[in-house]
């Protein structure tokens, strides 16, 4: 065991398994191995050189490239969002400019307000006349002709 | 960090979010294809394995367990498909080495380099399958010892042994063919 807490034999094993680059060694032994390699470079030179030659060849290997056809095939089989009843409507609205749906909502609101104020239901106006008659009778004005009847 | 990110993307992909699906494919398909190519030494078979791996992933997404790591699972599926393919190949063509994918002629100045790459690829593909997998995961794809051991369903000590044997075999093969 060296003063760095790792044996020379263990460093040879690490080079044998992980190559010449100490960055590839297991994290728990990396620093101790680095210190020992720096301290006694000659001892490990031959093993490092042999490992480095293989590392170089492995790093020369090109990464296989994904073909567009393979990517397309994988994507085509992927999950799709479920189609809902409102999906078509939302899809249609989604393609329109933003002001179109907003304008439609505003028009609807205006129509409702105007409709409610302009045309009171017939039953509402009859109920109002009945209420007037009761009030006139209570004050004894029910015998008097109405202004509009007089003018007629 | 990648684990959390994976989980988020998996959830969205399972719901059919095309962006999340695309993210998963872009992130993992090159690794799966790389692993399969090194294991099988055959581009067409490697593409088939990659496609099948993702088909299985898409089926698994709706019931995905958050504690499982997608990357590990995906690599395991790919490896098992590679093992199956190698088994089939041994049954059909006992002892025959795999053909390399690209046989097109190359310019003379690149010939030596191309030959060297082919020799190394063939040597890796000819390794015992678990050695080839360990070497690909650690030396070529940069997985940590813990990740690679997890994918191979083995201990880190056993992984180290696989790596050492793989490198020794490669050195012997390459020395024999005078590539080194």
**Count of DSSP-assigned helices of chain A:** 8
Supply the number of structural domains of chain B: 2
Q: What is the fourth-level CATH superfamily of the largest domain in chain B?
A: RNA polymerase sigma factor, region 2, helix turn helix motif
Low-confidence regions of chain B: none
Q: Which overall shape of chain B is indicated by the principal axes computed on the Cα atoms?
A: globular
Tally of extended strands of chain A? Answer: 0
Helices and strands of chain B: which structural class? Answer: mainly alpha
Secondary-structure element order of chain A, as H and E? Answer: HHHHHHHH
The secondary-structure element order of chain B is: HHHHHHHH
User: What Rg of chain A is obtained from the alpha carbons, in whole angstroms?
Assistant: 46 Å
**Helix fraction bin of chain A:** 55-70%
Descriptive keywords:
heterodimer; A: 152 residues; mainly alpha; 8 helices; elongated; B: 180 residues; Rna Polymerase Sigma Factor, Chain: A; Arc Repressor Mutant, subunit A; 2 domains
Q: What do these coordinates show?
A:
The complex is a heterodimer of chains A (152) and B (180). Chain A has 152 residues and is mostly helical. Among the domains of chain A are: 53 residues, no CATH class; 34 residues. Helices cover 68% and strands 0% of the residues of chain A. Chain A has eight helices and no strands. In chain A, helix 1 packs parallel to helix 3. The relative contact order of chain A is 0.05. The relative contact order of chain B is 0.11. Chain B folds into two domains: 101 residues, Rna Polymerase Sigma Factor, Chain: A (Orthogonal Bundle); 73 residues, Winged helix-like DNA-binding domain superfamily/Winged helix DNA-binding domain (Arc Repressor Mutant, subunit A, Orthogonal Bundle), CATH 1.10.10. Chain B has 180 residues and is mainly alpha-helical. The longest helix of chain B has 23 residues. Classes of the chains: A mainly alpha (152), B mainly alpha (180). At the A-B interface, helix 1, helix 3 and helix 4 of A face helix 2, helix 3, helix 5, helix 6 and helix 8 of B.
């Amino acid at each position: 065991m060296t003063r760095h807490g790792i044996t020379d034999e263990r460093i040879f094993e690490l080079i044998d398994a992980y190559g010449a680059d100490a960055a590839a060694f297991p994290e728990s032994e990396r620093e101790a191995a680095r210190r020992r390699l720096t301290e006694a470079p000659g001892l490990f030179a031959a093993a490092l050189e042999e490992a480095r030659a293989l590392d170089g060849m492995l790093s020369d290997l090109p990464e296989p490239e994904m073909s567009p056809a393979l990517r397309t095939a994988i994507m085509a089989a992927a999950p799709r969002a479920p189609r809902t009843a409102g999906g078509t409507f939302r899809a249609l609205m989604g393609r329109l400019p933003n002001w179109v749906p907003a304008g439609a909502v505003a028009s609807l609101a205006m129509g409702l307000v105007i409709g409610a104020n302009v045309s009171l239901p017939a039953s509402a106006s009859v109920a109002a006349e009945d209420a007037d008659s009761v009030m006139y009778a209570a004050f004894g004005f029910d015998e008097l002709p109405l202004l509009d009847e007089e003018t007629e | 960090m990648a684990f959390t990110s994976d989980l988020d993307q998996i959830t969205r992909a399972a719901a059919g979010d095309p962006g999340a699906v695309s993210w998963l494919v872009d992130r993992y398909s090159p690794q799966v294809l790389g692993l399969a190519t090194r294991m099988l030494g055959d581009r067409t078979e490697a593409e088939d394995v990659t496609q099948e791996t993702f088909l299985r992933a898409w089926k698994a997404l709706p019931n995905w367990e958050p504690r499982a790591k997608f990357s590990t699972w995906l690599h395991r599926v790919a490896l098992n498909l590679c093992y199956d393919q190698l088994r089939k190949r041994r049954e059909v063509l006992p002892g025959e080495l795999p053909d390399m994918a690209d046989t097109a002629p190359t310019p003379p100045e690149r010939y030596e380099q191309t030959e060297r790459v082919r020799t190394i690829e063939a040597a890796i593909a000819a390794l015992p399958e678990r050695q080839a997998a360990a070497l690909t995961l650690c030396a070529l794809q940069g997985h940590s010892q813990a990740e690679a051991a997890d994918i191979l369903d083995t201990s880190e000590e056993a992984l180290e042994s696989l790596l050492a044997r793989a490198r020794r075999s490669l050195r012997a093969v390459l020395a024999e063919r005078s590539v080194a």
